[in-house]
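Hi C.,

You asked whether I'd gotten around to modeling the 275-residue construct. I have! Everything is below, sequence then structure, no commentary in between.
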Amino acid sequence: MNIWEFSLLVWVGSFTAGLVGSLTGLGGGVVIVPLLTSVFGVDIRYAVGASLVSVIATSSGAACRYIKTGYTNLRLGMFLEVATTIGAIIGALIATFVTVKALTIVLAIVLLYSAYLSQQPKKEHPEGESTDSLGDYFQLNGTYPTGNGLMSYQVHAVPAGFSVMLVAGVISGLLGIGSGAFKVLAMDQIMGIPFKVSTTTSNFMIGVTAAASAGVYLARGYIDPGLSMPVMLGVLPGAILGAKILVGTKTQVLRIIFGLVLVVMALKMVYNSFV
């Protein structure tokens, strides 16, 4: 395989990763890292470096449209980024001292959990709109567009959500996957935020989280321009397309396919690490 064929195949895979990551809020890196390591045989640290660049591209491509359509909660995203940014820097520093096999196993576990999370039923309009004192104090509550006009929602369990975001940041810096699964988990299932608001706010946040840890990988020499360029050029249009599709579509079928892909990739990575 020559460099042009390699770049083209990486571009196709990255485009798909950007599309799926934008639709689900899980981030394209959750597909990029196992794709590069399992299919193309790239060292996991360089795969993580390229993935961080792709995550920034995914966030940039999708966030603009989501903000315009009124789904993204900017105030909540910036508040939670305090936790994820601190965690991302910690994770990136830890990653340089962790063995490749350990990173592979941790990533496989995260992939399997992400697959499980993607199949969980969600309520589009959550019930139980009791107020949260911290949510009110920081003015984190908001509205989002629906077929019946704007619908308001309340933010709950702010300390618990903030703690999960710190863990999400560590995982992002350690594995370069954006950790969108944990961001969506914190907002959707713990803080009681509508699913589309959770995914769009997650897409906005993952770019900032990735940027915090990308600097550490760049300083360590783990970001290869020859690998990162086709990844970024593929992820960006995929993320933009996904942002256009999300507003008016149901993603349940995509979730099932995505979950199956994650399970297959996780099992393949574990198998490769022990053979």
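If it helps when you're writing up: Residues 3-274 form one domain.

Thanks,
B.
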